Amino acid sequence: MTRYLISFADGAMDHIPAEEWADVGKASHAVVQEAHIAGVWVFGAGLERQRASVVATDGMVTDGPYPETKEVIGGFSVVDVASREEALAWAAKIAVACRCAQEVRELMPDAEQDAMLRQANR
C-alpha cells in the first residue's frame, strides 16, 4: 500500500455560504467514515487560517508563509491505498464533499517509520 496526501488550498472553500457549512461538514465526515470502514483512512484535518512559524535548522523562528500566499494548505487527508487511481477516486469523493478541488501527491515510503508505528500500535 502507498500513502497519498490529498489537500486543498487555503481559501478554496471560501465560496461556500455560511448556512451550508453544516451540510459540507456532514458530507465530508461521511467520506471520512467511508474511508475508515474501507481501511484506507490514515489522518486528516482542516488547518486554522493563521500565519505559520518557520523553524530553521539553527532553531531561529520566523513568521511565514502567510495565509495570503497560494502555497498555504487549507486542509488535508492522508489515505493508504493500493494505487494512484484509488487515491484519485478518494480525492474525487473529498472534492464533492468539500466542494473544492483536491491536489493528490504520493508520500515517500519510509519502512523504518512504518515499523515504529506498527510497534506503537501493538
TrEMBL record:
Name the protein family. Answer: Belongs to the YciI family.
The entry's protein name is YciI family protein
Q: Which Gene3D superfamilies does this one have?
A: Dimeric alpha+beta barrel
- Listed Pfam families: YCII (PF03795)
Top-rank lineage group of the source organism = Bacteria
Domain YCII-related: from-to ranges: 34-107
Organism of derivation: Plantactinospora solaniradicis
Enumerate the PANTHER family for this protein.
BLL7171 PROTEIN (PTHR35174:SF3), BLL7171 PROTEIN-RELATED (PTHR35174)
